[in-house]
Specification:
8-stranded parallel beta sheet; 8 strands; binds inosine; TIM Barrel; alpha/beta
């Protein structure tokens, strides 16, 4: 069986970060928005390093100005994911790019995203759930507004809250209010850490934000005590190998710690993060792990199952997705 057609689950995907460059360029043209030189000669996103990547990401987002844009984006992203065998996806959604943190505007954007998700489910069978994400370098004050948007729209579709952005800014403890508010609203929690920050950043995130999953978290492998803790507490790491290599965190897959994490008993999932930025997709992620790390179809199945076990979705949906992994008799 080809890797492309194997069933997959993805827990770490930024919705705007999955926008194809041609989609963003088209919107910029339609609306006459100057997004500056964010593409290379081949029309791909061009950035020099992680901080520059964040700038390009935000410039691309200036073209997404209406709920209709997010409807179209969600349809395009889910169609692409389904083509790579993804049966379940969780997307990071940013009220910051959907009305700037205004609750009434956020509700309209969310309705458009959900409408697209329902159509994708009917057409391709792919299931989507949303995780509202605040952006670390936008600061703790703004994170409160974003948590408020999340809490007010929490339910069995908007199921999680998290944080992405520049890990070099602020400390995790500055965001405690936002994560507490989200937890009280019944949202499940994840935060980026241990990508550009070391093990101490992961530890702070666990201590102060009390998350059950960590976005990336790969640098936890540098600290054996922390690895034990993560394994003991059953914290899942949302690992994005292609992203880590594209951004220069590791020179190549051979140097990536994913297998060391697994050997330490840590639950890991595999995701693309921002696929067109990193020239990847779910098929390419697993093909790379098979080619360069000796992964087999069993490893892919086990990782997919681990992702579904840690998914922020209602249990009846989890069970129906798990049944899809079983070979047909
Ligand atoms: O790989 C990543 N590491 C850290 N932050 C990221 C990454 N990709 C995207 N974002 C952050 O997530 C926000 C939208 O959800 C983006 O604005 C960016 O700040």
């Amino acid at each position: 069986m080809s890797i492309r057609s194997l069933p997959k689950a993805e827990l770490h995907l930024h919705l705007e970060g999955a926008a194809p460059p041609a989609f963003i360029a088209g919107l910029a043209r339609e609306k006459n928005i100057d997004i500056g030189g964010i593409f290379d000669a081949q029309g791909r996103y061009a950035y020099r390093n992680f901080v520059d990547f964040l700038r390009v990401y935000e410039a691309a987002c200036t073209t997404l100005t209406s709920p209709r844009d997010f409807y179209r984006l969600t349809r395009a992203v889910l169609e692409e994911s389904a083509a790579h065998g993804v049966i379940y996806s969780e997307c990071f959604l940013s009220p910051d790019f959907c009305g700037g943190g205004d609750l009434a505007a956020w509700r309209e954007y969310l309705a458009a995203i959900r409408e697209a998700a329902e159509e994708a489910r009917a057409n391709d069978g792919i299931v989507l759930r949303g995780v509202v994400t605040c952006i670390r370098h936008f600061g703790p004050e703004q994170s409160r507004r974003i948590a408020h948007c999340a809490a007010e729209t929490a339910g069995d579709w908007l199921t999680g809250f998290g944080m992405g952005g520049d890990e070099g800014q602020y400390s995790a403890s500055d965001f405690t209010w936002a994560f507490d508010a989200a937890r009280e609203a019944g949202l499940r929690l994840t935060s980026h850490a241990g990508e550009w920050g070391g093990p101490e950043s992961v530890r702070e995130t666990l201590d102060h934000l009390r998350v059950e999953r960590v976005g990336h978290g790969v640098r936890a492998h540098e600290d054996p005590d922390l690895l034990h803790r993560i394994a003991d507490e059953g914290v899942m790491l949302e690992v994005c190998p292609g992203s880590n290599v594209a951004l220069g965190l590791y020179p190549d897959l051979a140097h990536h710690p994913i297998d060391r994490l697994r050997e330490a008993g840590v639950a890991v999932s595999v995701s693309t993060d921002d696929p067109p930025f990193f020239h990847t997709d779910m098929t390419a992620e697993y093909e790379g792990l098979c080619r360069h790390r000796g992964w087999s179809e069993d490893d892919i199945a086990a990782t997919t199952r681990a992702a579904l076990d840690a998914a922020f979705c209602p249990d009846d949906i989890r069970q129906s997705l798990i049944r899809k992994l079983e070979p047909e008799t």
